[in-house]
Amino acid sequence: MPTSTPSDGAGLPHALVTGTSAGIGAAIAELLLAQGWRVSGLDRAPARIGHAAFRPVQVDLTDGQATDAAVQACGTATALVHAAGVLRVAPVGQLSAADGALMWQLHVQAIAGIANRVLPAMAAAGQGRVVLIGSRVASGVAGRSQYAATKAALVALARSWAAEVVARGVTVNVVSPAATRTGMLADPARQSASPRVPPMGRLIEPGEVAALVAFLLSPPAAAITGQDIRICGGASLG
C-alpha cells in the first residue's frame, strides 16, 4: 500500500466509499487518504473533506439510476466500502413502512446496485476489496427490528458475493461495530432509544472502525473473506 499522496492523486489505488460526509464513512475516507489512496466519496450531503486525492460525488444513494451513473463516472475502483447508513427505531406494533423502506434502500439496495457494477470489474481484473459496515445488532435487538434486518442482509450479501469471487482475487467482508460515537446518536428520530454503551465502558470510536476497514483493504488481509467482524467492546460476550 502506498504511504504518500501525489498532489493530483494519479496512479493511486482507488476506493469508492459511501457516506463520507460524517461519522464512520468520513473516518474511513480520511484514513485511506492518509495512507495514500485516492477516494471517491458518495454521499447526499455536501463533502467536508478537503484533500487533493478526494473526489466528492453528491448523490442520493436511494436513487438507483443516479447512483449507477455516479459510480460509472468514478471509474475503476480497487476497493469499495459501504458506510452510508441511517437508524430508525420502533417496537413491533409501531413499525413505519416508510422508515423500513428507507433503511432497506440505503443499506441494502444501494450497495447491491453498486456491487452489481463494481464487483464484476474487480473479478475481471483479478483484484479488489469490498467492506460493508454492518452492526452488532444484526442478530436482533428489541426495538430495532427493521434496522437489524437490513444489517443482517448485508452479512448474507457479503458471504454470497465472497463465495462468487473468492477464486478471482476479490475479498468481501462486513465490519459490525457496536454503538459508535457519531452524529447518528443525536438523530431526533432515535431519541426514544438511547445507545447501549458496550461493557468496556465507552462508545466505539469511528477511527477504530476505520482502522479495521483499512486493514481489510490491505495486502496482508488477502486471505480474509466472507467474514462478519465485530468491534463491540465486549457487547457480544454475554
Question: Which key features would you list for this structure?
Answer:
single chain; 238 residues; alpha/beta; seven-stranded parallel β-sheet; disordered N terminus
How would you characterize the overall build of this protein?
Helices cover 35% and strands 16% of the residues. With 238 residues, the chain is an alpha/beta fold.
What is the N-to-C order of secondary-structure elements (H for helix, E for strand)?
A: EHEEHEHEHEHE
Mean pLDDT: 91
Biggest beta-sheet profile = 7 strands, parallel
- The number of distinct helices, counting runs of at least 4 residues, comes to 5
Number of strands: 7
- Ranges with pLDDT <50 over ≥5 residues? 1-8
Global structural class:
alpha/beta
Which bin fits the share of residues in helices? 25-40%
Gross geometry: globular
State the separation between the terminal residues, measured CA to CA.
38 Å
Computed over alpha carbons, the radius of gyration is 17 Å
Question: Can you list the strand order of the major beta sheet?
Answer: 3-2-1-4-5-6-7
